[in-house]
Design brief:
heterodimer; A: alpha/beta; Rossmann fold; Alpha-Beta Plaits; six-stranded mixed beta sheet; four-stranded antiparallel beta sheet; 14 strands; 28% strand; elongated; B: 265 residues; mainly alpha
């Protein structure tokens, strides 16, 4: 759906986005992670045809972002949720959406129906006639999300969609993103919220000027940390440690109190053998569990290596 | 560029103007003030106390009046025509107020990025915003001028029991030719200044500099240095067409998606 080829952007001598090569598949939720100033917003602005790349290009649903004629078609096909909601404070919720529905050429017969649908979905129907200047940050964010969906775009660029939202509103937005994914929309999600990215993204790109890593969250974790298990015993002896270390599938065995932590290549196959060996050594096995690494650990490790 | 998109932008701007008490107040109060003050301060004395001017031979007005070329009528006509620059200030000032609020408002509320991401060209946005500032300003100017005529003729009739008409051709040229050109120039100046400042009042204060030449014409006329006539109005119109074209080119270069998102402060 989106194909970035050597996409680069400089501001003066500062190269903010450097040679970005990335493909986003149709119907995928792609998480674009990176610190402030990493160039995420610049990338989105290039893809949304708001600013031009210095080098390279991107093809969005067959349309070239560098082609002026294609740019208007791209704007019609995408929905952009900007960092700040960007609403007209003196106008009502309904009038804000009506303005954008008209700009996006939503047919007159469907305009009111769609505005009503999204206002109800976001829980703002009762406040449709109130000026949005009096809305809370969360309500404004919901309004902005509704605005970028009015024309039912194929591709959505969401820049920090849950930023500033309370946990309940964040959850509504997250569930909504998954709902949109279910409808087959492609979602490019810029976020600082690693837990959110882990939960809803099919793939993650870790970005700081250039792409540092890209894969599914689980593969990123496994590639960086491998798969590991922890076995908790009632008591750990030197004999048990020596015997377990000698097993061919056990690597990097660490002892921490009455816990043995080790890397195994395939826990599904190796764990039964491990447990049998421990029982044969008269070890009292209390717990066996796979160690889970968070996306946050992956993120900081990748960022640390980049430094 | 489509008229439909321009109309959508304009409608939104009008909705915002109606909700902004300061803009609405300026569009109503200033023209009304001009329409009342000018007849009261300039026409009424020439109707009821023309001798006040006869005693002053050192001024252009005095010379004209005492030369015997004309009578009280010519004094009244002179004042009716002398206020043309005042009514030219309205299309120069009012769009500046509307446009500066519109553009700085978009900057402050950070509404420009979603707007620029929509399938609407920058020209459609620019024209929509310009027209939404020019149309109310022109309507206010014309309404103010009509009120001025009504009040002035009312005063003339009350004092002399007849009507005295100003130079209608000159007024027509001023209202239909100079006014739109001045309004357009005001918009362009407001746009350029608004891209660099973040307070509409600062933008308006800077834009007011552009009123100084108009005031200079009024003062020049009142002090006898120059006389507003048709040739002068047409000459000014030609000059304004050239200045407007140059300003449009400059403003258009600033009103570019990339320029707005990366350089506007």
């Amino acid at each position: 759906m989106i194909e970035m080829r050597g996409l680069s952007r400089s501001f003066g001598n500062n190269r903010v986005v450097n040679n970005l090569n990335l493909n986003i598949n149709e119907g995928e939720v792609f998480g674009f992670l990176g610190p402030n100033g990493a160039g995420k917003t610049t990338t989105v602005r290039m893809l949304a045809c708001l600013i031009r790349p210095t080098e390279g290009t991107a093809i969005l649903d067959g349309l070239d972002i560098n082609n002026e004629k294609d740019a208007m078609s791209i704007r019609r096909e995408i929905g952009l949720l900007t960092e700040s909601p960007g609403l007209y404070d003196t106008l009502s919720a309904q009038r804000n959406l009506d303005f954008y529905a008209k700009l996006y050429d939503v047919p007159e017969t469907k305009r009111n129906e769609r505005i009503g649908h999204y206002l109800k979905m976001m829980g703002l129907w009762e406040k449709r006639d109130e000026p949005v200047g009096g809305f809370s940050k969360g309500m404004k964010q919901k309004m902005a999300i509704a605005r970028c969906l009015l024309h039912e775009p194929k591709v959505l660029f969401l820049d920090e969609p849950t930023s500033g939202l309370d946990p309940e509103a964040s959850r509504i937005v997250r569930d909504f993103i998954l709902e949109l994914k279910g409808e087959g929309r492609t979602i490019f999600l810029c976020t600082h919220n690693l837990d959110e990215a882990d939960r809803i993204c099919d793939r993650i790109g870790i970005f700081k000027g250039s792409l540092l890593g890209v894969d599914t969250p689980s593969r990123l974790k496994n590639d960086l940390y491998g798969r590991s298990v922890t076995v908790q015993l009632r008591e750990v002896s030197a004999a048990i440690v020596d015997n377990i270390r000698s097993l061919p599938f056990v690597k990097n065995l660490e002892v921490n109190g009455n816990e043995l932590r080790m890397n195994v290549s395939a826990p599904e196959q190796d764990n039964p053998q491990l447990v049998r060996s421990l029982i044969a050594l008269n070890a009292d096995v209390q717990f066996v569990y796979e160690n889970k690494h968070s996306l946050e650990e992956v993120y900081f490790k990748v960022m640390g290596e980049a430094k | 560029m489509t008229l439909e998109k321009i109309r959508v932008v304009m409608d939104k701007e009008f909705d915002e103007i109606i909700k902004n008490k300061y803009i609405l107040g300026s569009l109503l109060f200033v023209p009304l003030l001009f329409a009342i003050l000018m007849p009261v301060s300039m026409i009424a004395p020439s109707v009821f106390y023309p001798q006040a001017y006869q005693s002053d031979n050192s001024t252009f007005i005095g010379n004209t009046f005492s030369s015997g070329v004309s009578s009280q009528d010519s004094l009244i006509i002179f004042f009716m025509d002398a206020v043309i620059p005042f009514f030219m200030m309205l299309p120069a000032i009012l769009p500046t107020i509307v446009a500066s609020y519109s553009i700085i408002g978009e900057k402050k509320n950070r509404t420009l990025e979603p707007l620029l991401a929509a399938p609407v060209s920058v020209d459609e946005i620019l024209v929509g915003k310009a027209l939404s500032a020019i149309i109310p300003a022109m309507l206010a100017t014309w309404a103010s001028s009509l009120l001025f005529f009504a009040f002035s003729e009312g005063i003339v009739y009350a004092g002399l029991h007849r009507l005295i008409m100003p130079d209608l051709a000159m007024w027509g040229a001023g209202l239909l030719l100079l006014s739109p050109l001045l309004a357009f120039l005001g918009i362009m100046i407001a746009l350029i200044i608004s891209s660099r400042v973040n307070d509409p009042r600062v933008a308006q204060q800077i834009s007011v500099i552009f009123v100084i030449p108009i005031m200079a014409i009024f003062i020049g006329q009142m002090s006898g240095f120059m006389l507003i006539d048709m040739r002068m109005i047409l000459g000014l119109a030609v000059a304004l067409v050239i200045v407007d074209a140059l300003m449009l080119r400059f403003a258009r270069s600033m009103f570019d998606r990339e320029e707005i998102l990366t350089r506007w402060k």
